[in-house]
């Protein structure tokens, strides 16, 4: 007789009625039939074309295998499961697409670019770098680095790269103390919306909240170099297809700056 511990007491299980056994047996039979009928990866459809044919063929090759993962000289045993193989057509096509994309971004003038820049060493100040890369861009061997572009358009574009790791959507009621300082004409110009309310309801306003980054300032050098606490607002301008900076707030001074302010 089976027993289960619960709440500090032992309870004997009641015998399962015959009707319940019958129901369970039927359920098992039905479930087994369903598994057999859906064992394939997907249901083939002649109209699906090339990809569906590959999926159907690949589904018949999938097998669970013993899998391991190596870290230096240690071997870890993983749960058995399907293993990716380059013999699978879909995976092979994926690798080909990746290789094609990498080839498209390869600069075959890399050695010439290196020699060009080495001839201009030493580069000591920012102006030296700007001049060298501008001259390099004029040769046509490579475009000027985006870091040399100080425009609002490029600043917004950089937020869509690794620099925008904390970018998030602004909802109604959030950051109201900062946003109410922004003139309405700027919403039309930057966001393509007439008001703050319409910008929020259209889900076009985003924020990069760095309001607590000041604590990362090096105390030993705070008199000459520091990290300010800032909050930056950006708009997804659908018509221009760009993420554009709307305003930046210096949290400690509670001042909000826009492109309409004097530089």
From TrEMBL:
UniProt signal peptide: 1-40
UniProt KW keywords: Signal
Domain of life assignment: Eukaryota
Protein name: RxLR effector protein
Organism this protein belongs to: Phytophthora fragariae
């Amino acid at each position: 007789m089976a027993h289960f511990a619960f709440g500090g007491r032992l309870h004997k299980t009641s015998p399962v009625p015959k009707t319940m056994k019958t129901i369970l047996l039927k359920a098992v039979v039905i479930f087994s039939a369903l598994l057999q009928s859906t064992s394939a990866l997907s249901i083939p459809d002649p109209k699906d074309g090339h990809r569906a044919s590959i999926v159907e063929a690949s589904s018949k090759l999938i097998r669970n295998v013993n899998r391991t993962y190596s870290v230096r000289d240690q071997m870890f045993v993983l749960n058995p499961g399907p293993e990716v193989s380059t013999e699978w057509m879909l995976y092979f096509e994926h690798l080909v697409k990746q290789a094609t994309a990498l080839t498209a971004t390869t600069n075959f003038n890399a050695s010439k670019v290196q020699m060009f820049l080495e001839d201009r060493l030493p580069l000591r100040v920012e102006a030296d770098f700007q001049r060298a890369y501008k001259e390099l861009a004029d040769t046509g061997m490579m475009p000027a680095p985006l870091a040399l572009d100080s425009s609002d358009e490029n600043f917004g574009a950089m937020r869509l790269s690794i620099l925008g790791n904390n970018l998030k959507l602004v909802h109604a009621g959030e950051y109201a103390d900062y946003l109410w300082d922004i003139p309405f004409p700027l919403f039309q110009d930057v966001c393509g919306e007439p008001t703050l309310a319409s910008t929020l309801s259209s889900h076009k306003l985003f924020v990069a909240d760095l309001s607590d980054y000041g604590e990362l300032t090096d105390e030993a050098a705070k008199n000459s170099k520091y990290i300010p606490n800032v909050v930056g607002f950006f708009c997804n301008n659908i018509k221009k297809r760009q993420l554009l900076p709307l305003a930046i707030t210096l949290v400690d001074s509670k001042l909000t700056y826009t492109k309409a302010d004097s530089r």
